[in-house]
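User: Just a sanity check before I run the rest of the batch. Below are the structure tokens for the first item. I only need the designed sequence back.
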């Protein structure tokens, strides 16, 4: 059996509202989208049931295995499906601690690549495993544009006919999600993100309506906790984008512009110390009537290489 690999994409939260709490967890209503930053997840089978995960890049080598969601995902997969284990390599490009879902992306990427490796097609069971690994891991399993509710486990895929372009401001420091939610609880935001309106705008491809619906209830508490977030928000606002907001609980901030050219203009004129990056949303491709393909699918080049390795059999 040959090794498999997949791309696991970062996400941004176009809207995020806190709708309550249940069982010790906050409930959310959020519209998210994948952006074109990804970690590459590779796996090859083992003859035993062990999961070994080797991290590469951005300091990820220092993540203890017992705190690595990718390890948990691999072990959960083996336990659920009774397969052999795998040696897994993860090459990181998703900034760590930036609210871009890197940990969830890696966990979802491991589930997806092992499903390819062992030809597991039980997507509902994979989704249940993903939901047990983190609030947005189930969303990251399929990705694209989607509305998440509950703890994030209820995922409604959204089609979007346009690509969105953003300039990311990355402080390089993390904001604890737990601390951010506690800070929110100490001073709840009276404003509310309208994720229903955002979902309608996304489906319609209405850029102005999307920009007008951008809001994150965790933005203010994140800024109170982090000087880097405050600096990123001020930098984003200075270019008068169509909208700007913290993603997740921070520390990353995105500025939404009408075109990639405007993003690059802002990047070229930014003189501050924060790292910046121009990104665009990933548009899932149609895969049959009304069904969205997962952005974790192999690229055409990867499919071709895998086909050559396996005597032109399917790489799926």
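Assistant: Here's the designed sequence for the first item:
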């Amino acid at each position: 059996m040959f090794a498999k690999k997949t791309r696991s994409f970062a996400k941004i939260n176009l809207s995020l509202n806190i709708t309550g709490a249940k069982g010790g967890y906050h409930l959310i209503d959020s519209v998210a989208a994948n952006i074109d930053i990804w970690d590459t997840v590779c796996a090859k089978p083992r003859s035993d049931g062990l999961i070994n995960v080797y991290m590469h890049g951005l300091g990820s080598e220092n993540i203890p295995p017992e705190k690595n969601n990718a390890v948990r995902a691999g072990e959960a997969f083996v336990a659920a499906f009774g397969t052999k284990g795998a040696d897994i390599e993860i090459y990181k490009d998703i900034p760590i601690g930036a609210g871009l879902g890197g940990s969830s992306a890696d966990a979802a990427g491991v589930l997806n690549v092992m499903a390819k490796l062992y030809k597991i097609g039980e997507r509902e069971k994979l989704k249940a495993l993903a939901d047990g690994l983190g609030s947005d891991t189930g969303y990251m399993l399929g990705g694209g544009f989607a509305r998440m509710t509950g703890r994030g486990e209820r995922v409604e895929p959204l089609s979007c006919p346009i690509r969105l372009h953003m300039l990311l401001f990355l402080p390089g420091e993390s904001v604890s999600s737990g601390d951010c939610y506690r800070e929110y609880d100490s001073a709840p935001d009276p404003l509310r993100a309208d994720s229903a309106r955002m979902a309608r705008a996304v489906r319609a491809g209405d850029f102005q309506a999307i920009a007008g619906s951008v809001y994150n209830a965790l933005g203010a508490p994140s800024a109170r906790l982090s000087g880097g977030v405050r600096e990123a928000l001020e930098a984003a606002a200075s270019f008068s984008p169509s909208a700007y907001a913290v993603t997740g609980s921070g520390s990353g901030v995105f500025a939404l512009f009408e075109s990639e050219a405007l993003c690059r203009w802002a990047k070229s004129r930014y003189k501050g110390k924060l790292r910046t990056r121009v990104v665009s949303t990933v548009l899932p491709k149609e895969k049959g009537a009304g069904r969205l393909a997962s952005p974790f699918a192999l690229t055409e080049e990867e499919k071709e290489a895998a086909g050559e390795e396996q005597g032109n059999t399917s790489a799926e």
